[in-house]
Design a protein that fits this description.
Elements lengths: L1 H5 L6 H20 L24 H7 L5 E6 L2 E3 L7 E3 L6 E3 L11 E9 L2 E4 L3 E3 L13 E6 L4 E3 L11 E5 L12 E3 L5 E3 L8 E10 L4 E4 L3 E6 L8 E7 L4 E7 L4 E4 L1 E5 L3 E6 L9 E4 L4 E4 L8 E9 L2 E19 L4 E3 L5 E4 L1 E5 L3 E6 L2 E2 L5 E4 L2 E4 L8 E8 L4 E10 L2 E5 L5 E6 L4 E3 L3 E4 L4 E5 L3 E2 L6 E3 L5 E3 L8 E7 L5 E9 L3 E4 L3 E5 L4 E4 L1 E3 L8 E6 L2 E2 L10 E3 L2 E4 L8 E8 L4 E11 L6 E6 L5 E7 L10 E8 L8 E7 L4 E5 L5 E9 L14 E2 L10 E5 L6 E7 L12 E8 L8 E5 L4 E4 L6 E10 L2 E2 L6 E4 L13 E6 L2 E5 L5 H4 L3 E13 L4 H5 L4 E6 L6 E4 L6 E11 L10 E4 ...
Parallel strand pairs: 8-15, 17-24, 25-33, 35-43, 45-53
Antiparallel strand pairs: 1-2, 1-5, 3-4, 5-6, 5-7, 9-12, 10-13, 11-12, 13-14, 13-15, 16-19, 18-22, 20-23, 21-22, 23-24, 24-27, 26-31, 28-29, 28-32, 30-31, 32-33, 34-37, 36-41, 38-39, 38-42, 40-41, 42-43, 44-47, 46-51, 48-49, 48-52, 50-51, 52-53, 54-55, 55-58, 56-57, 56-59, 59-60, 61-62, 62-65, ...
Helix pairs in contact: 2-3
Membrane topology: Single-pass type I membrane protein
Family: Belongs to the immunoglobulin superfamily. L1/neurofascin/NgCAM family.
Main location: membrane
């Protein structure tokens, strides 16, 4: 077909490209027909199916042009599956399958190769192997019964049927329940059940091994095994660990790269051993290994050559340890390191097909053509490279490269197509490429032709790109740019050499994605939250990236416990960290162009586990060695170990600290005290905290011994005279060292008593000795004693017996005047024998009687103040300061010892000389006018002498270099002075008193005269419906002045407010009508100072509303009912009164006098009062039944009538809520008591009552 297409030379360029693509697709289809892929079918037979790779409909149209023939070779011999009636062969491929359901299949076991051929050559498949075996069956076996003693180890065998496929084994009971496995009971990889030691609870007769073969879909049930555990006749003793599987000290394993490997470590022992794994020749990779079956299995998945090495399992319990070494050798089946490429070639070219493979051991590489060995001398092989020189059209074929080592073989087909075709560029013109900075990009320039076309690339600004080290042209014509930079952006041109065929490509280089804040390495305590952040920057021209988190290279979204993670954009949160969360966490920011990643880690730390295996060794009278095994430190190294002890024979049992040792220690020697019973425990401490205490040891008791020390703090605390009190600090009972502990107290006088000691033994301090004299020196000491002997010789100390009060006062007390405020007090030394104790010092009592002018206090002997001054024992004089001048004092001196104070010396009186006075007590400034200032003051509270007078100095403070003005010789009896000052200046005043010794301290004030006041003119207004608020700022230095606010309603007359003070700063003008315009002004001294116009808020229908309210029918009815009720009651009162009664004329006259004497509240009812009525027993008064007939009732009636009148009158409601009266100007109307509406408040506040016109 392609030969016919070549003859269409005169067709359009578009048609020619279509032809070429068809050829390429056909060529590609040719290659795809030779791909032979295996697959596994159900059952125990492994089959390999070869089928064509699916392509488009165009490809199918090409397939029909060239017929493909398939043939099979089994074990090197031709094999035709179509001749076997048990096999069925596919029509469109060489696939065959077994259709027989029963019968033997062993004849199909072998190694198969498939050959696919057409006119262009023969392709060969990789070798496929079919292995057949019989269905596993249960062999006849004897029942197994085992009888062991408690604490021994035992193995229950399974012995599954032999098979090339490992079965799945389950140990179950007769109710098909799984046997519970743990560190003590574990199933081995061989199927056996291992007991590190047995207990009585393990006894049962239904241990059943069930063997399952999933591929064969059968389960083989073994005979139940009976296990009988006999109780031990003696105490079950612990046993050192011993290996059960594998046995011996070491074992070796050979495994192929990519396979899985399980290293097993099952040990016996009592208690059950703990298992630990290490790599002896390196670090055990946690990412490439995992532990299973309670750490009894170390599992490698997809093992690699780097895993080769030595591994060690350590089994540990309280009795010891045992190890087993595993030598792991990883080899590899052959794999390709460089595959040969299929290509088109033109006649005469030299073809080189490179084929390189690797493996352990290294594989052997061979070449063949169309499945046959090479024989043409033009075809040579060297170091795996097949060279074809001067190729011809007949060299078109399929070449096979095969690599073989002892493990397996691999084969790959390479296609050589020798043909002559014109050059073409298949890549589209104007393709846009985008790449991130630092990445690699390939600009495609796919060509077709034979011989192979050569192309060159040029850049828009670079020119020829061959010299650029970052840019290289690939064999297929593509331009590869590595480590792209922003300057690489632009247009590139690909040109076929010796032709005008070109295409262009546009390259846009974007900023690379960077992680600006990577996740950190966190150390998190178990149970606490962990937060990993991953902040990044992405080029704005890219779409939003995908942020993906991995833990130990596995995606978190694919992990089995993905629900525990909280991922919020670039933040990963683990709310409750556990041990399994430990690992390396990688943040991947994935865009369409690049990937940025950064890693952090989480290390789970916690308090250490308690130490184990606490043992005491090397016991001695005063020491014991304590050793332990460290527990898990949970990734936080142990800093120190705390050893605590408990006294078992002490009533208050509590653990106390005994010693601390460094964290790398596992033993220490403890110092013990005699005659105590100890037991110990150990606590490990790391940065997180303390571990739980370990198990405590057995009790160890130490023998008794004499005391090692004597009590400390031996001293005399004697207080009472003639008594010696010896005391000391009691020794801790742990220092008694034995039974019968006592204190041996010894004392003797320092002088005159000789070398003999007085001795007394007591159980506890103190010891009191009487009749030893006052303040006598004694040598004292105390020794510890028990039944085993005495403590070391004690050191003596000096103590004194009790003191008594001093007998005498100091003599020759004198006073020397230093100044008006200081004196020096002197006295003669006291006789030591009269102190009767240790002299502590002297006490000076200073009595103040008042100033010189108040001598009566001295005569009466009543000081107004007493103060005390203490001195040291070696002082015989004292300077006293801070005395008041011109004052009377007295003082006395007494002796002080530890007992107290002795008698005082006779009082010595003295007076201080005159001094300068203190400042005047007060200074007030008063300004009656703008130019006058009156100063008022009071005399000094401390004149300190005879006050002669005052001196006043003042100066202006708001002008520089103003002279000080002086007013001298102000008599001491004067208390004020008037000054004429500048009204525009501020002054500072200094007022001092003086005595014959000079001037005293001043009192200082600042001030200025006050100016004549005027009403405010800077007024702010705020209007309401019936009022307006006026605010202003009062001016400084102005006297208060009263004024009126005048207001005029449109079409009304001028009215004014009550009197307002300028110092108020605020006033509310009330009684205005809503929705009305007003003109406001303030006049002062026949001159308008301020004027403004306002309009109150609201509609101007206030009167209409009020009128409508009064004329409402319900209101009229209510008032009528009240009036009618009152009239009825009054009529009843008049009728009652008109009936008369029997009473004397005198009483009536007195009643009339009383009636006339009372003021009448109402003209109409003044002479008719129920209270004047004379009541009798037969004629009771109406007032007894009604409260409306008394004085209060009539007054209330009058008041209610008045209130009613106010409601009906215009503007009466507004008048009740304001102190402002709408009255004519005061200048046009007189004020009188009968017209109180004109009375104005003089307090600057509104009137409290509203009066009607």
């Amino acid at each position: 077909m392609w030969l016919d297409l070549l003859k269409r030379k005169k067709e359009r360029k578009k048609e020619r490209k279509t032809f070429l693509r068809c050829i390429i697709r056909y060529y590609g289809l040719y290659f795809s027909t030779l791909y032979i892929l295996p697959f596994k079918i159900s059952g125990s037979i492994r089959e390999f199916l070869m089928f064509l790779k699916k392509v488009s409909n165009a490809h199918h149209s090409c397939i029909s042009l060239i017929r493909i023939q398939f043939r099979w070779v089994k074990d090197g011999v031709e094999f035709d599956p179509s001749k076997d009636p048990e096999l069925s062969v596919s029509r469109d491929s060489g696939t065959f399958s077994l259709t027989a359901k029963d019968g033997p299949i062993h004849q199909y076991q072998g190694r198969y190769n498939c050959y696919a051929s057409n006119v262009l050559g023969t392709a060969v498949s990789n070798e496929a192997r079919i292995v057949t075996e019989n269905t596993p069956t249960l062999q006849k076996e004897k029942k197994v019964s085992k009888k062991v003693e408690e604490g021994e180890s035992v193995v229950l065998p399974c012995n599954p049927p032999n098979s090339t496929v490992a079965p799945v084994i389950h140990w179950m009971d007769k109710k098909l329940r799984h046997i519970q496995q743990n560190e003590r009971v574990i199933q081995g990889r061989d199927g056996n059940l291992y007991f590190s030691h047995v207990t009585e609870a393990d006894s049962r007769d239904d241990y059943t091994c069930n063997t399952q073969f999933p591929s064969a879909r059968i389960i083989v049930l073994k005979e139940p095994i009976k296990l009988t555990v006999v109780p031990s006749n003696s105490v079950v003793r612990n046993r050192r660990p011993q290996m059960m599987r594998p046995t011996g000290p070491s074992s070796s394993y050979l495994v192929l790269s990519g396979q899985n490997l399980d290293l097993e470590c099952i040990a016996q022992g009592l208690p059950s051993p703990k298992i630990q794994w290490i790599r002896k020749d390196g670090v055990l990779s946690e990412s490439r290994t995992s532990k299973d079956s309670y750490d009894r299995v170390l599992r490698f998945k997809n093992i690699s050559v780097s895993d080769s090495g030595e591994y060690q399992c350590t089994a540990t319990n309280l009795q010891g340890i045992i190890t087993h070494t595993y030598s792991v050798t990883v080899e590899a089946a052959p794999f390709w390191t460089k595959e040969p490429k299929s290509q088109l070639y033109s006649p005469g070219e030299t073809v080189k097909l490179e084929c390189k493979a690797d493996g352990i051991p290294s594989p052997e590489v061979t070449w063949s053509i169309n499945g046959n060995l090479l024989t043409d001398p033009r075809r040579s092989v060297k170091h795996g490279v097949l060279t074809l020189k001067n190729v011809e059209l007949s060299d078109t074929a399929v070449y096979q490269c095969k690599a073989v080592n002892k493990h397996s073989s691999i084969l790959i087909n390479a296609y050589v197509y020798v043909i002559e075709l014109p050059p073409q560029i298949l890549t589209e013109d104007g393709v846009m490429y985008s790449v991130a900075e630092g990445q690699m990009i390939e600009l495609a320039c796919e060509t077709f032709g034979s011989p192979r076309p050569n192309v060159t690339w040029e850049g828009e600004t670079w020119g020829a790109l061959v010299a650029n080290p970052r840019m290289s042209q690939l064999l297929d014509g593509s331009l590869q740019i590595s480590n792209a930079s922003l300057n690489d952006s632009g247009q590139y041109t690909c040109t076929v050499s010796n032709s005008r065929i070109t295409i262009t490509a546009e390259l846009d280089v974007l900023n690379k994605t960077v992680i600006v804040k990577p996740p950190l390495a966190l150390r998190i305590q178990r149970g606490k939250p962990a937060t990993l952040t991953c902040e990044y920057q992405v080029d704005s021209r890219q779409d939003a990236p995908q942020v993906q988190w991995r833990k130990n290279l596995q995606k978190l979204t694919e992990s089995s416990d993905s629900d525990k993670y909280m991922i919020d954009e670039s933040t990963l949160i683990i709310p409750d960290v556990k041990e399994e969360d430990e690992g390396t966490y990688t943040c991947e920011v994935i865009t369409t162009l690049d990937i940025a990643e950064a890693s952090g880690s989480i290390t789970v730390v916690d308090r250490p586990d308690p130490p184990t295996q606490i043992q005491m060794t090397e016991p001695k009278d005063r020491s014991v060695t304590l050793s332990w095994t460290p527990g898990d430190d949970h990734n936080s190294p142990v800093l120190e170990y705390l050893i605590e002890f408990e006294e078992t024979e002490y009533e208050r049992k509590e653990w106390e600290e005994l010693s601390r040792v460094s964290g790398n220690s596992q033993r220490t020697t403890l110092s013990l005290k005699p005659f105590l019973s100890y037991r110990f425990r150990v606590i490990a401490i790391n940065d997180i905290g303390k571990s739980d205490p370990s198990m405590y040891t057995d009790v160890i008791s130490t023998p008794a011994a004499p005391p090692d020390s004597n009590p400390e703090g031996v001293r005399s605390d004697s207080i009472d005279p003639g008594t010696l009190l010896i005391t000391w600090k009691e020794m801790d009972r742990r220092s008694f060292n034995g039974p019968g502990f006592e204190y041996k107290v010894m004392w003797r006088k320092v002088l005159g008593s000789g070398p003999s000691w007085h001795i007394k033994s007591i159980k506890s301090p103190p010891l009191i000795i009487t009749d030893v004299g006052n303040f006598s020196a004694f040598e004292i000491k105390v020794q510890a004693v028990n039944e085993m002997g005495e403590g070391p010789e004690p050191k003596s100390t000096i103590g004194y017996s009790g003191e008594d009060y001093p007998l005498e006062a100091p003599l020759n007390v004198g006073v020397d005047l230093i100044s008006s405020t200081a004196i020096k007090v002197v006295w003669a030394p006291i006789k030591r024998e009269t102190v009767r104790g240790r002299l502590q010092g002297y006490k000076i009592s200073l009595m103040y009687y008042g100033p010189e002018s108040r001598r009566e206090h001295v005569r009466e002997g009543k000081p107004s103040n007493i103060s005390f001054v203490m001195t040291d024992s070696n002082e015989e004089m004292k300077v006293l300061g801070d005395l008041l001048p011109y004052s009377h004092y007295a003082l006395s001196v007494s002796v002080i010892n530890n007992k107290g104070e002795g008698p005082q010396s006779d009082p010595l009186t003295f007076h201080t000389p005159e001094g300068v006075p203190g400042p005047p007590s007060s200074l007030l400034l008063d300004s009656p006018s703008e130019t006058e200032m009156i100063l008022h003051w009071t005399p000094p509270s401390q004149p300190n002498g005879i006050l002669k007078g005052y001196i006043l100095r003042y100066q202006q403070v708001d002008k520089e270099d103003n002279p000080m003005q002086v007013e001298k010789n102000i008599d001491h009896g004067v208390s004020h002075v008037s000054l004429k000052l500048d009204p525009h200046s501020r002054y500072r005043f200094y007022l001092r008193g003086y005595t014959s010794l000079g001037e005293g301290l001043p009192i200082i004030r600042e001030g200025a005269t006050t100016l004549d006041g005027v009403p405010p003119s800077n007024i702010s207004l705020s209007t309401g419906e019936t009022s307006v608020n006026l605010t202003w700022v009062s001016k400084e230095r102005q006297r208060n002045v009263g004024f009126f606010i005048h207001y005029l309603k449109k079409d009304g007359t001028w009215k004014h407010s009550e009197r307002v003070n300028s110092s108020q700063s605020f006033y509310t003008l009330r009684g205005l009508q809503s929705g009305s315009e007003y003109r406001l002004k303030i006049d002062f001294k026949n001159k308008t100072l301020w004027e403004d116009e306002i309009q109150t808020a609201g509609a101007s229908n206030h009167k209409t509303v009020r009128k409508g309210f009064v004329t409402e029918s319900w209101f009229i009815g209510l008032i009528s009912a009240l009036v009618l009720l009152l009239l009825v009651l009054l009529i009843l009162c008049f009728i009652k009164r008109s009936k008369g009664g029997k009473y004397s004329v005198k009483e009536k006259e007195e009643g009339q006098i009383d009636s006339e004497a009372r003021p009448m509240n109402n003209e109409g009812f003044g002479e008719y009062r129920c209270g004047e009525e004379k009541r009798t027993a037969s004629q009771p008064s109406l007032c007894e039944d009604s409260k409306l007939c008394n004085d209060d009732a009539l007054d209330d009636y009058a008041n209610s009538n008045s209130v009613q009148t106010e409601v009906i009158m215009d503007e009466s409601l507004a008048s009740q809520s304001s102190g402002v009266r709408d009255v004519p100007d005061p200048g046009t109307q007189e004020s009188s008591p009968l017209n109180p509406a004109t009375a104005i408040s003089h307090h600057g506040l509104p009137n409290s009552a509203a009066l009607l016109d």
